[in-house]
Amino acid sequence: MIIGSAFVSPTMAESLKQVPLVDSMFKLAGDFGLQTADQKGLATSSNLSVTHSGITLKVPQIIFDGTRLVVALEKSGGDSQHQTLYPAIQTQGQPEEDILEKVDLFINGTSVNSNNGAFNFMYGRPGKDSNSMLIAYMRDPASGKPALPDQFELEVYAKLKGVAEPFRIQTTVHKTKINNKILQLQMSKSNPYLAFTAEKVEITPITTKITTSFKMLTDIAHMPDEYTVKREYNDIKNGQTIQYTKKELDMLDYAVFDEQGRELQLLSGSGVPLTKERNSKMITLFTPFVDTPQKIIFKPYILPTQPGGSALLDANGNWTRHYIDELEITVDVPQHTNRQ
């Protein structure tokens, strides 16, 4: 049975955070956007909870900035030590046993995991401890589907191992009232082989949404070796395996920095593969800027891969970046930008 359903305004949420009974999971999460939202009183606090078989699931905080929906979920009761909600990675690299069998979000009655393609991009992240987690959802911005409305009905669904009845927590979600900076850029840089365009930047205190595109200016046969990889393939003909290689463009991506060299961290994104006949348009979600930037620097790069497809890692175990300096774009940010 749902035992709480009241949501409060951001101002009241800020006051309630001083009360010990109201958790502030966003403040403890390793997500700068959520920490900023918590600090500025933008997150909505609640007492929503459901109890089955001596185990209580609670939704202490929710936020929706028009792009990213994040729900905090916390478990109490039961065997909290050995039946965690979100498993931690042990020293041996194996996750510990968790109690979560399934989690889903229903928006206006439709599962975000449904097969109709209307909803995508839901994932779980660690919370403040192993008995809490964050459920994040972003509608695939490249799907052509309309954005989520400013208000919708949300049901958080969770099935726990050993508990017969699923947990269902329902509420109405409202878009957080925040000012969005929007930069319509359409700025391009190119070399003889590739062109990169920074099209649009949308900045909120919680999420940065960026639209970009790459374009091939020459055939793959004329691409320099540092842009390509000879990919290995196997083909079966007449019962025999034939091995062959094919020259392909390596993976392209870009990094985003402010004028102080602080890089935004990737949250999620989508796009279409780049070919000579088709540009690769990408819509990517990043963490917010620490402060309103004076400049935004886009640094495109190649992500080199091995012939078999595995990543080429550096000494620290990170994917190597080969920056393409000719494609770098620097944008001056007007301090009085149009807002929504």
Automatic annotation (TrEMBL):
Coiled coil: none annotated. Residues 2-73 form the DUF4179 domain. This is DUF4179 domain-containing protein. Residues 181-318 form the DUF5643 domain. It comes from the Bacteria.
